[in-house]
From TrEMBL, chain A:
<dbReference type="InterPro" id="IPR003593">
    <property type="entry name" value="AAA+_ATPase"/>
</dbReference>
<keyword id="KW-1278">Translocase</keyword>
<keyword id="KW-0547">Nucleotide-binding</keyword>
<keyword id="KW-0813">Transport</keyword>
<comment type="function">
    <text>Part of the ABC transporter complex PotABCD involved in spermidine/putrescine import. Responsible for energy coupling to the transport system.</text>
</comment>
<keyword id="KW-0472">Membrane</keyword>
<comment type="subunit">
    <text>The complex is composed of two ATP-binding proteins (PotA), two transmembrane proteins (PotB and PotC) and a solute-binding protein (PotD).</text>
</comment>
<feature type="domain" description="ABC transporter">
    <location>
        <begin position="6"/>
        <end position="237"/>
    </location>
</feature>
<protein>
    <recommendedName>
        <fullName>Spermidine/putrescine import ATP-binding protein PotA</fullName>
        <ecNumber>7.6.2.11</ecNumber>
    </recommendedName>
</protein>
From TrEMBL, chain B:
<protein>
    <submittedName>
        <fullName>Spermidine/putrescine ABC transporter permease</fullName>
    </submittedName>
</protein>
<keyword id="KW-0812">Transmembrane</keyword>
<dbReference type="InterPro" id="IPR000515">
    <property type="entry name" value="MetI-like"/>
</dbReference>
<feature type="transmembrane region" description="Helical">
    <location>
        <begin position="199"/>
        <end position="217"/>
    </location>
</feature>
<keyword id="KW-1133">Transmembrane helix</keyword>
<dbReference type="InterPro" id="IPR035906">
    <property type="entry name" value="MetI-like_sf"/>
</dbReference>
<keyword id="KW-0472">Membrane</keyword>
<dbReference type="GO" id="GO:0055085">
    <property type="term" value="P:transmembrane transport"/>
</dbReference>
<feature type="transmembrane region" description="Helical">
    <location>
        <begin position="135"/>
        <end position="159"/>
    </location>
</feature>
Amino acid sequence: MSKTIVELKNVYKKYDDGFTALKNISFKLQEGEFYTLLGPSGCGKTTILQSIAGFTEVTSGQVLFDGKKINDIPANKRQLNTVFQDYALFPNMNVFDNVAFGLVVHNAKKDEIKTRVHDALKMVQLEQYANREISELSGGQQQRIAIARAIVNRPKVLLLDEPLSALDAKLRKDMQYELRELQQNLGITFLFVTHDQEEALAMSDEIFVMNKGEILQNGSPVDIYDEPINHFVADFIGESNIIPGKMVADYQVAFLGHQFECADAGMRPNEPVEVVIRPEDLVITTPEQGKLQVKVDTQLFRGDYYEILAYDKAGNEWLIHSTNASTDDAIVGLTFGPNDMHIMRYNETEAKFNHRLESYED
Amino acid sequence: MKRNYRGLFFTPYVLWLAMFVIAPVALIIYYSFFNIHHHFTFANYQEFFSSGTYLTMTANSVLYAFLITLFAILISYPMALVISKLKHRDLWILLVILPTWINLLLKAYAFIGLLSHDGLVNDLFQFFGIPAQHMLFTDASFILVAAYIQIPFMILPIYNSLTDISDSYIRASRDLGATKWQTLTKVIIPMTMPGIKSGIQIVFIPSLSLFMLSRLIGGNKVITLGTAVEEHFLTTMNWGMGSTIGVVLIISMVIVMLLTNTKRKRRRTS
C-alpha cells in the first residue's frame, strides 16, 4: 500500500575543511508517515533536511524523490516544503500574503489563492488572522502560520526543522498533538528534525537516531526506547542505567557479581555486554527482597514521580523513578524482571542487531 | 547628581546644534523676508513663485537630483547585492568607501582630465576608431560625475540592509517555489526598502543643490538652485533672494524626508 516518496542512497556530505557532515546515509521514507531525525546538535540531521529541500548539495550519493534523482534540481522545483526553525515569515507581508506566497509565485488565480489560503489557515485554526501583521502574532501563532504557508502548495512531503524549539514547554506539548493530527489529516509525509527525544517519541511513526553524521538506529519509538542498539542511543533516548556485564549464556546475564535471567540471546558465551535498565522499571523494596542493594543519595520531586539517585557498593549510579519517596541515606533493595533488562553488545551494526533480534523473537 | 552630569555631557551638543544648525536656519528664514535694501517684504517669495526662471530652475534641480538618485540606485543596488555575497565583503566595502575620503574638488578635476577633449576617455575612443566626443560641460557628464560621487552613500545603507536579511528568508522563498528573480523582487527588495529609502535621503537632498559640480563639470550650462544661491550671495549680493531659495530647498528636503519615512508598525491597533 505505502509507496516510497523520498529515498537517500549512500549520501555523503563533506565540507572543504575536511569535516564530514554525513557518512553513508541511506533511508527510505514512505508516503503518509511521520518520521523524525533525532540527534544532538551537529549530528547532521539538519544537513539531511537541507539536502532533501535543496539548500545544500551532497558530495556523493543520490537523493530521490518519487523515484527520480533530484540532486541537481533547484529548491524551487522540488515538490516539498519546509517549516523553518526561525519560521522565516516575511516581515514585509501580512499573514495572508505570507501564506499566499507559494501560490502567487506559481501565478495561481486570485479566487484560487483566496480559497486555498483560507483552507490552509483553517487547518492551523487561524482563519481570522489573515489581515494581521507578522509582528502582531505570538510565537505559537507564527509557528502555525509558518506551517500554513508550507502546506498551501500541497506538498507530498513536509520538512520541519526543529519547529517547536522556540516555544515554551506547555505550548510545545500542545503543538505535538496538533502536528500529529495535522499530519494525519493531510495524509502526507512529515520529516521532523529535533534534538528533543520526548517530541520524537510522542509524534513519530519511525525515528532515525543520529550521531556524528551517521544513522545509528531506526525503528518505531517503542522499539528504540525498549531496545536501543548501543550506549549512545540508550543514553540519548530517555534516561537509563547502563551497567557493564557479561553474557554467560543465552538468556543469562551476569553483572555486579550476580547472575540474572534476561530476555536477550544470540551472543557469544561470556561476551562482555552492557545492560540497560530504565529508571521506571526499577522497583524499590526491602534490602532482603531486592536483587541489588543500593544506598539512596538524593531525591528530586518531579511532580508525577520522585527521581531517586542511589549508589551500589561498586559505586555505580542508579536512577530510579518511583511514585513514593524514599529516605535519604537508606539502604534499599531494587527488583526488576527479565524483560526490564535490555542487553547491548559493543560495536554491533544495525543490520546485525536487527538480524539477531529476529533470530530469537517471533 | 546623575542628572547634572548628563546635562554636562549634553551641553556641547546643544551648543553646537544651536550655533550651527538652529541659528543659521533661523537667519536664513529671517533674511528671506528682506529685500536688497534691508526692508521687510514678502516680495522675495512672490518673485520666486511667479518668475518662470526660478520655477524652471527648481524643476531642473528636482529633475537632475532625481536622475542622479535614480542612476545611483541602479548602479548601487546590484553592486551591494554582489558585494553582500562575496567572501571578503568587508574589503570590498572599504574599496567603495575609499573615494569618499578624497576631496570633492580633486575628484571633479580628475573627471575634467578624463572627460576633456584631449582626455583619457577620448584617447580610448580614438583608439577604437570612434571620433572624439564633446563630453565635458554636458548634462550627461554632470549626471555621471554626480552619480559617481553619490554612489558610496547609496551603497552603504543598501548593503547594510542586505546583510541584515537572514538566509532563511531567501531559503523560504525558494522553498515555496519562487525563482531567483521572484525572490529578488518579492522578498529581497521589499525587505531592503528601509536601506533604499535612507540612501535616497542621503543622495537626493544634497543633489538638489550641487553647485560646484554644476559649474566645473556642467560648465554653468546646468543651473540648479544651488548655483542660484551661490550667485545671489556672492555676485548679486541679494541675500534676501538667496535666503528665499534656501528656505525653498529646506522645505523640499523636509518633504523628501516625509515621503521616504519608513512607516513602522502600521495598523498596530486594528
